[in-house]
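hi! just following up on the protien thing from before. the input was this:
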Amino acid sequence: MLQTRHRIGLIAVTLLVVVAILLAAQHYFNRQEISSLTGGCLDNGGTVELTIHNTLTNSYEFSCTR
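and the predicted 3d structure came back as:
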């Protein structure tokens, strides 16, 4: 009984760590993408229009206007 609880606890902790790592990676790459888009727009003489809808889901709209 005790061994089963430890196993379930270990699985739960492992899943939480994996989810946290995946969320951190998604956030990192999303920031890199926005940075790249912004840099490219500014390098071409454009004006950045960025609207972040939800920071938790990383949803945003990006446009570059001249």
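The two ends are 67 Å apart (CA to CA).
The chain has a mean pLDDT of 92.
cheers
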